[in-house]
Amino acid sequence: MTSSLRSNQAVLLAAAAFALLLGGLALAFYWVPQAPLEGFRQRIFYIHVPVALTAYACFGWGAWKALRLLWKRDRRYDLESYTAVHIGVIFGILTLVTGSIWARTSWGVWWSWGERQLVLFLVLFLFYCAYFMLRYSVEPGPRRAQMSAVYALFGVVLIPISFLAIRLAENFIHPVVFSRDVDENLTGSQAATFGVCLAGTLALAAALHVNELRGKRLDERLRELREALA
Amino acid sequence: MTSAEKYVTAAYLVVLAVVLLYVIIYSFRLQRLEREITELAELARRKQVA
User: Fold this and answer.
1) Do B37 and A222 touch (CB under 8 A)?
2) Sequence spans of domains, chain B
3) Could you tell me which of A220, A74, A71 has the C-alpha nearest to residue A212?
4) I need a surface site. Which of A105, A159, A167, A225 has the fewest CB within 10 A?
5) Per-domain residue ranges for chain A?
6) Is the minimum CB–CB distance between A48 and chain B shorter than 8 Å?
């Protein structure tokens, strides 16, 4: 893909993210009716859950690129996988912070160690934070690329466990919003607003990914140029 | 403003703040890249003259 095409792609994604998130925000505050049990604080859901799902998507994307690297032995997938994990960690931080704010207003505590789904998300987040330690403890080259790829692939196993923990937990206080139980499910307006917000956070992650990847590629090319000129 | 409204606002502002922080960090990175390119262009020019 040429540089100008990538640039256009980044601008389009950023514009889409801005429009979708602004639209989602307007829908969440002015269209969706107040939740009967949670009240106004339920509106955190429209940012917290899309951000969490986007973090999972980034980690999943990173694992897919890692798999491609191990399969095709093409070095460009290493940078793509690394960038996806990088963006995933940013969304992971946002998930933990917005989740903590929701916990404080709903349960009266910032964090609950007894909640499996919270602890599992923290484990997943810390696992991906350790990815950077592993990556920067090894000299750049094919060995580092392969080690990072294997690590990113291991991490993806934690995603379904973390996601299902909300459903499998027996003593949960964390709300379940996508279930087969009609009473617990989202209403039409809630689902539509959630969809817009999710599309917005995914577009934001994609825009950040494209920009970050361009920056990292530029860094790499500059390093090569410096070595050639030295 | 009720307590719930404050917390909801805080959650949305945190997301906005992180995105803005990312943009600020990225602008510093662009400045560094610009500086490095200028240095490399100067180095290449000097090599050409020599």
Assistant:
1) yes
2) 20-50
3) A220
4) A167
5) 3-229
6) yes
User: The tokens 């709903």 sit on which residue?
Assistant: A106
Give A112's DSSP letter. Answer: -
Q: Note the ipTM here.
A: 0.81
> For residue A73, what is the DSSP state?
-
Query: Which residues in A70-108 are b (16+ Cβ under 10 Å) and which e?
Result: eeeeeeebbbbbbbbbbbbbbbbbbbbbbbbbbbbbbee
A1-17 pLDDT tens trace: 566 666 688 889 999 99
Q: Are A121 and A95 in contact (CB under 8 A)?
A: yes
Which CATH number applies to A3-229? 1.20.120
Predicted confidence (pLDDT) at residue B1 exceeds the cutoff of 80: no
Angle formed at CA A62 by CA A82 and CA B17, multiple of 5 degrees? 70
Say if residues A142 and A75 touch (Cβ distance below 8 Å): yes
**Backbone torsions φ then ψ of A39, nearest 5 degrees:** 75, -150
Write out residues 1-50 of B within 8 Å (CB-CB) of A: 2-5, 7-8, 10-12, 14-15, 18-19, 22, 26, 29-30, 33, 36-37, 40, 43-44, 47
